[in-house]
Write a structure and sequence with these properties.
By secondary structure, the protein is an all-alpha fold. 74% of the residues lie in helices and 0% in strands. The longest helix has 17 residues, at 57-73. This is Importin N-terminal domain-containing protein.
Length: 183
């Protein structure tokens, strides 16, 4: 699937006009589930779209929403657990975390949902993602950016992710990074 085709599908989902009554998630799901190689390709397209500065807010939000659906419902567990795809997994995490710092509140909120989904399926390597979030806060002087990341931490705790990992570690990181700037 070409990038332009992928974006076209997302644009269709925003306009409500689709071919043959298919919605964007159905089209992407059909392609996604054909093979592991297709999973890799589609996740690459998600990374490219999320990082694309030329896309408007509506398309970005739709892309993040579809990525959230993909992580939850397109059988990604094998993908997330495979070391062969570590570079693309890191790229997904990085692009979504970076979008937490968007000026758009809607994009920040949607990004936070995706981060929560990533933690849900990738609990074995959650510390590196938390460290990435923490470093963002440590190196930021913008209160909006800090609030966005703390919002993501709150989502993880509120969505009972805390039951999946060692509570002492996640609370320690949460406390360290949030209270430093919000006292």
């Amino acid at each position: 699937m070409e990038y332009s085709e992928f974006i076209g599908i997302i644009q269709e989902s925003c306009s409500g006009v689709t071919e043959n009554g298919e919605d964007a998630s159905s089209k992407i799901k059909f392609y996604f589930t054909k093979s592991v190689e297709n999973q890799f390709e589609v996740f690459n397209l998600f990374v490219q779209a999320i990082s694309d500065p030329t896309l408007d807010e509506i398309i970005k939000v739709a892309t993040l929403s579809l990525l959230y659906q993909a992580i939850h419902s397109l059988s990604p567990n094998g993908f997330w657990r495979s070391s062969n795809f570590q570079p693309i997994k890191e790229a997904i995490q990085s692009s979504v975390i970076n979008s937490l710092f968007s000026e758009s509140v809607i994009i920040r909120n949607e990004s936070s949902k995706v981060i929560t989904a990533i933690f849900g399926v990738q609990n074995g390597s959650w510390p590196s993602c938390l460290e990435y979030l923490g470093n963002k806060i440590e190196n930021s002087s913008e209160i909006d950016e800090i609030s966005a990341v703390v919002y993501a931490f709150n989502d993880l705790i509120n969505d009972n992710f805390i039951k999946v990992v060692e509570s002492s570690k996640i609370y320690s990181l949460y406390s360290k990074y949030s209270t430093k700037h919000l006292l």
